[in-house]
Amino acid sequence: MIEILAISGSLRAASTNSALVAALAANAPADCRIRLYDGLGRLPIFNPDDEGERTPPEASRLIDAVTRADGVIVSCPEYAHGVPGGLKNGLDWLVSRDAAVDKPAMLVHASPRSLFARAALAEIMRTMSFALYEDTALEVVLIGKKPPEMDKILAEPASRLAMREAVSAFAGFIGAR
Questions:
Q1: C-alpha pair distances (Å), 169 with each of 56, 80, 128, 146
Q2: Cα 166 from chain centroid (whole Å)
Q3: Given this model, what pLDDT does residue 137 score?
Q4: CA dist., res. 122 & res. 156, Å (int)
Q5: Which of 59, 61, 76, 128 could form a disulfide with 93 if both were Cys (CB 3.0 to 4.6 A apart)?
Q6: What burial class does residue 146 get, using C-beta atoms within 10 Å of its C-beta: 0-12 exposed, 13-18 middle, 19+ buried?
Q7: CB 73 within 8 A of CB 138
Q8: Are 111 and 138 in contact (CB under 8 A)?
Q9: How many CA atoms lie within 13 A of 45 on its CB side?
Q10: Three-state secondary structure string covering 7-58
């Protein structure tokens, strides 16, 4: 069983990115289990003085979850042409750890307009030594949709197939490493 951790870079209750990662978990291939990490909003602001024995419990949970996972999927909105602060803060807690080093990661998208955040996030994750999988791009356009509309789009057979195929391809990347 391939264990994948999915992280939404949005803290918004009706987030399209959170809806997308939840749908990925619900539509994962039989050989994959996707667990959702929902603790970004509980992480304290990263401070290198708080690492080691002083690492806050929520930061330890994130570090442990990334360490245990075979791969990581991130779906991220774009705020002011960049990565949201909460997600960047979560990544900062991983910087000086081995959790990200050579960890397979895939970015998925709920908006076709998040081009600056996509590029910035990919650069951040490459710099952190994540093994970024870029052969298959998954984009399910949910921007501007309310939860019932998101649910309808994510339940469409074409969307479900695209999600399953993207996760399956990512699992193949993980397995080949």
A1: 35, 31, 23, 29
A2: 13
A3: 86
A4: 28
A5: 59
A6: exposed
A7: no
A8: no
A9: 1
A10: EECCCCCCCHHHHHHHHHHHCCCCCEEEEEECCHHHCCCCCHHHCHHHCCHH
Does this model's pTM top 0.85? My answer is: yes
pLDDT score for 155: 97
Query: What is the length of the chain?
Result: 177
- What does 57-103 look like in DSSP terms, one character per residue? HHHHHHHHHHHH-SEEEEE---BTTB--HHHHHHHHHHTTSSTTTT-
**pLDDT tens digits for range 1-30:** 999 999 999 999 999 999 999 999 999 999
Q: Which CA distances in Å does 116 have to 42, 43, 50, 74?
A: 26, 24, 31, 15
- Strand 32-37 and strand 104-109: the pairing is unpaired
- Residue 161: pLDDT above 90? yes
State in Å, rounded, how far the first CA of the chain is from the last one: 15
